[in-house]
């Protein structure tokens, strides 16, 4: 049962008189009040009612045309509106209500012809609204004033003609005063006859039409809009009906079904699944399940769903059309998530232009696959802003481009987009030359060449040649950071080289081991610090162990094979087999020791190298948190001179902890720990022993002066803190030991074997990395300033 709101009716003294024109009327008098006369006006209309987008008009579902009529309340003395009389056919009666006289006809009213003439726009002599004093003898259907009227196709309307089914409209307020009717009752009903009290109260709460008050068609439309705005109804109609005391207005509402589920139909017309997790939609709308569907709440949920897409980076996701509601309460949302149709590369010059002077597209040196393989976003996937940002960072990190950005072009399918990566290439090659003189090499010249994008394939080629009076040194290296066609970002490096270095193994604290020439043992000119020359080449492969090549892999594995022809030589490049300590007269003061494994001055060393590293640092250059682990095994294959068979095992671990001890400057403070060690099993060529001491070992000692052994262990701790701007400081402590495995050379040179150092360091930021300056004190009381680039560990 629907609630009905009734107007109170007060009885007054009724005077009934029969006028000369046979019309019957009744009037009610109230003291001290301005007497009013209620007149029936019939107005023809041809404009539709104002209608909100997405909402039904009062007459949207009504097909029966009627004439618009209204009960006009006006002062009796007002004669501004002309009165048009219709010949009565029966008596009339009037029913009195307080302060208002409502005149109703008791016979059919022939008012359609008058209305048609009144609404004619071609005649300026006729009024646009006609007021009819009710003298008809049939009941006047005054409720029709609230219903849309039909505009006939002809200029005249027959009394009994069937009106056409055109969509009528009410005259605008600028043309005539909108007619008002008295409301006697307001009811809320449903087509199926049942409506819950909750929904019924929702309607009464928002409508303005009340019993005992007047209303207009515009007000009813506003009420309909207000009922729609509650969100609980799919259709609303206002049905006016005549009653003896006024108009009864019934709001016929179609409630929405109970919401049972919300489903997302992603990317219709494609086979691309939704990018949202399956439970995302239910999490957003679950509180609405089991309740009557409210379109406002549904819209709020859609906003949350849109925000969920945005937060996840799917910025092109868009709702297609209106939600679909089934009879079972299932709401279906069609969402175009922004499927990528194609990924393209567009080259630009330094000025940002895409075409050259001839109007031809700019052609780049870099192969497109080099760029596209860095993009995690592929065609057929959904566009994601976060993914694209990371993709651009990887492309820029190749070092081949001055500028990298992305733009979107429409695809051939309107629901898809083309992603265009715009790049401007930079110069990728360089060459340098120089000359110098040294006591070791004499006069020499150097030339180097670097190419960062060999053949447009992002391969790195480096070549360095040094030609001196005494020898030729070179190093040629080719690196491919991602082998073409490999899905795991496997890289390789191949090189050939001829290098020379003064071995720290033969450096002591006070004396050095020098080369011995058996043909001239006392000639001091033949006594030089041994130079270890390595001629060889090799290839190594490195691969991240993550299955996703676009994610940073904690673990990286490597494997390689290297061959070296190792020889010990003097400053003139002559091969020397042995070395010893000499006095100032050139006489050996120690046993002679071989400088190579074979004793001939030359060895063949073939190594199979395996390694792995795990990187959890927050910054590889200046870590403040995390850890780093590196392990490696080198296994030699006995071949050629020396027939060397050795197994070398090494490990290195660093841990970084954020702290806040001092307040010298703004920036992070860190406690850094490092522990490393290694050992060699089997043969031990003299030049392969471990050395301790120096800027990358125990600071406070000279390079290699602390220990040389088959095994070693080393520990360091640093407190790193900011000072100001680009300057930071460090307090450090280092310890190292050869674990009692000193070599024969270390024993001859009286190296300590173990020791520690401590001190203070300064770090200055530069484009090459931190420039490190450390002042260290050793446990022997000596001090030393060590220089380096980059953190010690």
UniProtKB/TrEMBL annotation:
Coiled coil: none annotated. Residues 453-793 form the Bacterial surface antigen (D15) domain. Residues 200-255, 365-426 form the POTRA domain. Residues 1-28 form the signal peptide. Residues 274-338 form the Polypeptide-transport-associated ShlB-type domain. GO terms for cellular component: outer membrane. Pfam families: Omp85 (PF01103), POTRA (PF07244), POTRA_2 (PF08479). Gene3D superfamilies: membrane protein fhac, membrane protein fhac: a member of the omp85/tpsb transporter family. Residues 46-58, 132-141 have a biased composition (Polar residues). Keywords: Cell outer membrane, Membrane, Signal, Transmembrane. Residues 29-58, 117-175, 578-598 are annotated as: Disordered. It is found in: Membrane. Residues 34-45 have a biased composition (Low complexity). InterPro entries: Bac_surfAg_D15, BamA/TamA_POTRA, D15-like, Polypept-transport_assoc_ShlB. PANTHER family: SORTING AND ASSEMBLY MACHINERY SAMM50 PROTEIN FAMILY MEMBER, TRANSLOCATION AND ASSEMBLY MODULE SUBUNIT TAMA. This is Surface antigen. It comes from Sphaerospermopsis reniformis.
